[in-house]
Design brief:
alpha/beta, D-Maltodextrin-Binding Protein, domain 2, 6-stranded mixed beta sheet, 45% helix
Amino acid sequence: MTTRRALLAAPVLLPAIAHAQDFPSRPISVVSGYAPGGLTDVVSRAVAARMERELGVPMVVENRVGGATAVANTHVAQSRPDGHTLLMGTSTLAINPALQPSLTPREPMRELLPVGMVFRSAFVLHVHPSLPVSSTAEFIAHCRANPGRVNFGSSGTGAVNHLAQALLASRTGIDVVHIPFRGGVPALVELRQNRIQAMFQAVLEAAPVLREGVTKGLAISSAARSPALPDLPPVADAVPGFDAVFWQGLFVPAGTPDPVRARLAAALNAATEDAELRARMAQQGVDIVTGDAASLSGLLARETVQWGELIRTANIRPE
């Protein structure tokens, strides 16, 4: 039986339903905060191309670089909430509020709505071959015996691989010297020359030098092993509960109608469940993940707390 409440609600619901039936009505912009050619850009384009088949309109990846991804994040948060402007958001949404609170959006969980997960990418803990260690436990023992004498590189202050190092130091009490670089490649040059002795590095960047024996791999930063480097045990084997990965998920502006978000989520699920895409990305150390909006929202909430507490406790400040 139709109730009075349902009749009252109908005028509110009908516009959203009608809008969803018309969606999408034009090409969709997928905004990324990273430069073309990098890991996030490559995955964004691969996933967008697969989603096109489900949505029937072009999906154009738009690179808006700057402000530690704040330029891209803010552009989408302030866009019309009609489903035609999407954000390939990353871990920076959880990091920026504590690391650089002046950046916008200041409250990503209020200004953006999650659609679903896209990928997780772990880091390799690798060291210069001259370091007399062959496991995470031995590395921790060496650092404890040599406080302040191990230079630990990263791709930049506040990057996830820097926070992974800070998390390791916090959990184990080791004293290492953090040396930030402008990206993982310059840091790798210094690791090759033994000017830094260790770093957490993206699997895609670390795998070639590990195979050549230029560096020595000790562990993987994710809670589970990486299919790309299955012989490396997780850091968590030596430091229980350790899990530090870079992730990417799809977001829309707050206010986007639920039916539109559901249509996007269905297309994203079809893309992330594509066997060929998953296999291709796995070869690059990228774990394509099928996860709903609730999973992404929970991840963002947890990491906002985790990284926020670490940044404040370790007094991490942007360079």
